[in-house]
Amino acid sequence: MRRKLVAGNWKMHGTQQFVREQLNLLRDGLGAEAGNADIVICPATIHLPLAAQLLVGCSLSLGAQNVFYAQEGAFTGEISAAMLAEYQVKYVIVGHSERRQHFAENDALVAAKFAAAQKEGLRPILCVGESWQQRESGDSHKVVLGQLANIVQEVGIAAFAHAVVAYEPVWAIGTGQTASPAHVQEVHAVIRNYLHGLDKNIADQTRIVYGGSVTAKNAADLFAQQDIDGGLVGGASLNADDFISICKSLD
Ligand code: PGA
Predict the structure, then answer these.
(1) Taking the model in full, what pTM does it have?
(2) 56-99 pLDDT, tens per residue?
(3) Torsion of CA 128, 149, 43, 215, to 10 degrees
(4) Are 178 and 172 in contact (CB under 8 A)?
(5) From CA 158, how far away is CA 210, in angstroms rounded?
(6) Are 80 and 87 in contact (CB under 8 A)?
(7) Alpha carbon of 43 to those of 13, 156, 168: distances in Å?
(8) Measuring CA to CA, which residue among 48, 55, 128, 58 is closest to residue 81?
(9) How many CB atoms lie within 10 A of CB 49?
(10) Distances, alpha carbon 38 to alpha carbons 31, 123, 138, 247, in Å
């Protein structure tokens, strides 16, 4: 049985006051829940130390939204996996489509970030997903498997033992246009089948979560699918009630 996982990606939102209020609400609302699933909060990098303090003694885990591939050096503005690990960060999102789009991150860079995170004991949450145009041309499977294969080729299948794959169709992110549970299940099965061909145990263990306009309303239908092991939630994770309700949909 795979342990379910829901991660809240706060993106570039929130003040210190928001972080305090939101984490207090989530601690109260999800304290008991988090026993059955991994619940991960990914605030802006600058808020990680504060969030780490607020989550001491709590079963909610901390995730980062980005990491750099080098261990240290002259890389102005960047943050290493070891620096994140010092603040109790357990997960890190790599390959998010917003970083691919706005910061020109390609599969080679994503693979290097994945490897750096994994080497430091952080669990990468690797995002893959097709654009609307690619979907319309019938290329969803090809694009997703291509992105995944490029990472596997660089880091090796064994590196996936503690990783999470997030299927995030670009057209569904922040648009309110959620992919249907049937479509997501189909793509997740294709991803699992691909992993299965490389390593059966890793394929069975790897959490494959869905991201793209997950809400309190649609979460239960998505999470009921056999190969959907949870979600990566953007917009709805900024509202404590909605996020708690999404996490409770895992039951
Ligand atoms: P969304 O974002 O839930 O706002 O669509 C998901 C994500 O970008 O991870």
Answers:
(1) 0.97
(2) 988 999 999 999 999 999 999 999 999 999 999 999 999 999 99
(3) 30
(4) yes
(5) 22
(6) no
(7) 8, 29, 19
(8) 48
(9) 12
(10) 11, 12, 33, 9
Place of tokens 């988090």: 34
Q: What pLDDT score was predicted for residue 198?
A: 98
Q: Which residue has the tokens 């929130």?
A: 14
Q: What gap in Å lies between CA 9 and CA 33, rounded to an integer?
A: 19
The residue assigned the tokens 């997950």 is: 214
Spacing, Cα 170 to ligand 1 middle (Å): 9
Atom of ligand 1 nearest to the CA of 235: 4
pLDDT score for 1: 80
DSSP string of 51-109, one letter each residue = HHHHTTT-S-EEEES---SSSSSS-TT---HHHHHTTTEEEEEES-HHHHHHS---HHH
Mean pLDDT for all residues in the chain: 96
pLDDT at res. 242: 98
Closest C-alpha to 168, from 92, 79, 98: 98
Is 208:188 a contact under the CB 8 Å cutoff?
yes
CA distance 108 to 137: 25
- Residue 244: what residue type? I
Catalytically active residues are: 96, 168
Where do we find the tokens 């026993």? 35
DSSP state of 72: S
**Do the beta carbons of residue 111 and residue 151 sit within 8 Å?**
yes
Residue among 5, 9, 165, 175 to mutate when testing ligand 1 (max atoms within 8 A of CB): 9
